[in-house]
Amino acid sequence: MNELVKTGITGLDEVLHGGIPRNNNLIVEGPPGSGKTTLGLGFIYHGALDYDEPGAIVSFELDPAKLMRDAAGFNWDLQGMIDQGKIKIIQTSPAVLLSEFRSDDGAFAASLVEMGAKRLLIDGLTPLRLYAEVNDMPFREDVHLLIEGLTRLGVTTMVTAEKDESLTGVLAHERFVFDTIISLTFGEARRRAHRRLKVTKSRGQDFIGGSHTMRIEPEIGVHVYRRAQSRPVASPDQPTSERRLSTGSPAIDKMMAGGIYEGSVTLVSGISGTGKTVFSVQFLTDAIKNGHKALLVSLDEHPRQLIRNAKSLGFDLQGLIDDGKLFIHYESPLELELDVHFDRIVKLVEQENIDCIALDSVAVYEMTSADEVADYLYALASFFKNRLATTLFNYESPELLGVSQISEELKGSHLVDNIILLNYVEISTVLRRALAVPKVRGSRNVQVTREYEIGVGGLVLLDENGSDTQAVPQLPFSSYYGLLSRSPSRQSPAIEEAVASGNPLPDSARMPNENPR
Predict the structure, then answer these.
(1) Helix (H) and strand (E) counts for the chain?
(2) How many alpha carbons lie under 13 Å from residue 481 in its C-beta half-sphere?
(3) Which of the residues 108, 383, 486, 498 could staple to 100 if both were Cys, CB 3.0 to 4.6 A apart?
């Protein structure tokens, strides 16, 4: 009785911590289209195929031909299992089934014993209830009769049932008598279909509560993706490191007191076009040069476009991909489901032993599911930190400074160890780029706003001597106040003296690169 029976449903056994107790009676409830029959069919088929546990399917509404057709859609050889005597399909009526259970030596029980059945699917409970109501029979007694009969047979039984939406907080009696309850939901959000699975109760075992994403996929059938937030912590002690990784720019490393701590999470925030993706590529390629494996999760640009744009800046991403040192994982924001996305990232990182990751951009998660994004980012950050993986979270902020929106809407600033702000500054008629590092945990970062350019090699910081321009005299950032406000106030004694005395304005100073490449 303490043995766990693996359902064979991809991901469901993980939610159930290995399976369900043998001889438990399960009820799978949900609205039409939620996947009840597909889940039950997979339970019987994989039990026979993978675990050598023969099973029977009792159907009141679907004829065997339709069940065979549905199984063939997933490339399941249901007919082969039937020919081997491992699966039997029984089409009957509620009246016949109930009468069988009222008898001590019914033909139904005999056929299950003969084939050595370990599993049973009854699809579904609703026709039994309707039969009892039409014939003015006490359905509660029929349910108890059914459960007692199944217990005597020694089979693990799954029963499907239409969810009664008319029940306003009052649970149907059958929910009390079944050992395990699995609830399926099927809805639409932003014109996309979403299926969810939740284990409401399961006697004799612990399980992962909450709502998990469920998909019906080719070749697989029902695939359950456990909610990202439920990942266990591998150790109560989070791994830390004294080692630092370079950002790919010695000047930015200097602003961060030596670079990024290994295993830390860095938020790179800025308006579109400020170079967040370029910075990610710069960081990952430098990490690869130093022996790391890297992953770029792209949610904004297709990999082909990324590779093309990076090539114009001197980065050979295709060569790194071909060498197995860089992986680019792309998913369209239009069809993104957070639990599915998380599962794919986790498997890729674990399989390839990746330890440097950039996500571009986490703002897409906010667009996909605003009410779940904070918990989701926490799950991502926890997973990467537990592996001592160094991570960049790119965030495209429509506001200039970016910090207030990250804190109030994304609620992600407290999750990260470092924050790098990339901004535009308008001086005269020229847009210039500014970089600031307001937060570096465990370091005395340089609290100075620096100007940078994007060129071959990525982001290059400029020194404080001026810049070439055809506009009015351009001065270094140190000559202005309020740079991050995009409306800086100029403070230049040389210009003020020239204006006051009527002398010509001084020429613009040249601003050479601090680190020419």
Answers:
(1) 18, 24
(2) 3
(3) 108
Residue type for 127, please? Answer: P
* Residue whose tokens read 């029977």: 56
For the question of whether the overall pTM of this predicted structure is more than 0.70, the answer is yes
Q: Which two tokens stand for residue 40?
A: 């039950």
Residues 6+ apart with CB under 8 A from 110: none
The lowest-confidence range among 162-166, 276-280, 345-349, 380-384 is: 162-166
Which residues touch 221 (CB under 8 Å, ≥6 apart)? 9, 10, 38, 39, 41, 42, 74, 76
For residue 49, give the 3-state DSSP assignment: helix
**pLDDT tens-digit readout, 58-68:** 998 778 888 99
User: Within 460-509, where are the H helices?
Assistant: 493-501
DSSP E strand boundaries for 31-80: 55-59
Which range of 96-105, 244-253, 408-417 scores highest in mean pLDDT? It is 244-253
Residues 6 or more apart from 176 whose CB is under 8 A from it?
none
CA separation for the pair 16, 14 (Å, rounded): 5
Count of Cβ atoms closer than 10 Å to residue 474 Cβ: 18
Q: How many CB atoms lie within 10 A of CB 463?
A: 16
Closest Cα partner for 452 from 471, 472, 437?
437
Sequence-distant (≥ 6) Cβ neighbours of residue 304 within 8 angstroms: none
- For 217, the 3-state DSSP assignment is strand
Write down the pLDDT at residue 169. Answer: 42
Mapped onto helix, strand or coil, the DSSP state of residue 456 is coil
Backbone angles phi, psi at 48, to 5 degrees: -75, -40
Closest CA to 8 of 221, 203, 228: 221
